Amino acid sequence: MELLSGADMLIRSLQDEGIEYIYGYPGGAALHIYDALFRQDKVKHILVRHEQAAVHMADGYARATGLPGTVLVTSGPGATNTITGIATAFMDSIPMVVLCGQVASTLIGEDAFQETDMIGVSRPVVKHNLSVRHPEDIPEIIRKAYYIAATGRPGPVVVDIPKDMTTPNERYEYVFPKKVKLRSYNPAIRGHAGQIKKAVDMLMAARRPIIYAGGGVILGKASDQLTELVKMLGYPITNTIMGIGCYPASDKQHLGWLGMHGTYESNMAMHHSDLILCVGARFDDRVTNATEKFCPGARIVHIDIDPASISKTIDADVPIVGPVDAVLKEMITLVKESKEKPDAEAIAAWWKQIEEWRAFHGMRYETSPDVIKPQEVVEALWRLTKGEAFVTSDVGQHQMFAAQYYKFDRPNRWINSGGLGTMGFGLPAAMGVKLTHPDDEVLCITGEGSIQMNIQELSTCKQYNLPVKIINLNNQALGMVKQWQDMNYESRHAESYMGSLPDFIKLAEAYGHKGVRIEKKEDLEPMLKEALAMKDDLVFVDIYVDRFEHVYPMQVARGSMKDMWLSKTERV
Amino acid sequence: MRRIISVLLENEPGALSRVVGLFSQRNYNIETLTVAPTEDETLSRLTVTTTGSDKVIEQITKQLNKLIEVVKLVDLTEGAHIERELMLVKLKATGSQRAEIKRTVDIFRGQIVDVTSSVYTVQLAGNSEKLDGFIQAVGTSGVLEVVRSGVSGIARGEKVLSL
What we know:
The structure holds 2 protein chains of 2 kinds. Chain A is an alpha/beta fold.
């Protein structure tokens, strides 16, 4: 029988769970735990400079590896600082466990120093949260936390740990449970066979079909099955911004991504389709535009692990609840066996129409002889990194440009806050990726607004030697806010202008990194190349781009999917 | 449409706040809510009455089911069911009012459970409309205080909500 303190049990449980890294920040209520961490070397701790960044780091790690991330913080401000990060992970269904210290159970409710009701505060933005009431429950709670976080529709789980649950000299028997069983939580393990059959019949009979895939394909590790099915059918595929990389962007069947800033051909094909096969996406408002005008002629098959995602905003004709990989596998078998075949003539006509749409816009943008366009920067990065880099982004115009012009052929490489839209996400997420992928190129494409929301992490990068490349598309304004003000508020730029920007080069240097400024168009590619060649350094590349550029296409507010601005002057 | 949703919930601290939080977070409506432990002490039974379109009700049941601590639930209004609510009413009762109130209480099959020289306290059980009807019958001017338990419900016949 092994006797351990609560703190030692916690760390031991993390080891037994196979946790390699935790990201965090110490403080009073978590000190017993930190002491237990200190006395072992299996679980490595990364000390950030702000707790929000710890959560984004864990998030970046989770998105790149598909494994749950782990965060450790203290009570009160340490815990509340994680909320934006937790909400970010929640909106994008990222598996994560956030361990929060808490004041001693005897003090709870007394407004003790650094006391916050973290269970209450986090409740709306977690998949679940658990609090420790007896030290001997810790192994089971940890096991449960990871099980809930990583299964079904993944999400963040918070564990609240009062300080007296981790007292060093009170020891209890350590038993790490082999299995977790929860009578009230049983995620689906396969889809309904009858529904899958019905879906395949509809796919075979469709004349203008489209596959609409989302982040669920990446989370469900089903890219291979999706690609196989789509190739076998020969149908067009679009994906959400969260689904980028779930199907190779360079393949001709891929129409790019859809929605507010999606490609013309994707939005047009969706609107005119007669069958939408939605795989692991959720008909979010940034995709559908006005729901009452959404794809009037389309019947909808919707595959999702979460029944609540189905028919939430858009009614599904054939709902299929189940893990996408298992459902797609069954569909592949049925398609192979099917006596009915797609109507080749109808599908050829559909492709002809789509190719016309593709040729009509083709993600064109106006170039200028002397001003650097943000799109050009992303295209240059894509060429220079051969499309192989991990790219994280912050939120705004740069995020859309990165997603539009960097062509991802693999899943888990495009890492952004799609649901919550969290500025300040990019740098810490990139750090989480770089830590576990030291030999891969990791780019953080950002803007001068977003990067300043977690810039303190340059210090963490120095401490742990994380040579990410920060690509700052500097337009000296909050670009997306300004674009909306240009379009909807007669160019009244209320607070969207960033005066007194820091000298980012000196700032990077002050933290012990390298900085490169690019202002001239002819310098763009050679200087980017130089920056990328500095393999062992974090390089802050500050690029002065066109201050007046807008992101297009852009759906017209309250319109249907096909109502778009294609440039500042063209509306379709 | 008005619905009665019955939920078996893990009898754990914080579980109720998740249910209530879900309703406010997703902009659903709670009209009444009752909750108490069941004969199985690890479970609580919660009954919530709510209103919404079929689409909203479908989302409510799906979102409730997603809560880890929700073990099972049923929309009682989908089938034949019995619903009851308990009401205690304090009424001004002096002079000729006393006999009149007594008659009305009898008609509604209520009971006078406490008496003073000027006040009757009446206990009444039934569905919500019956309780509304009683208040209407005695007239609001004589009502000093009303406390209602919220709706409890159970399906008719063989159907049971259990593990």
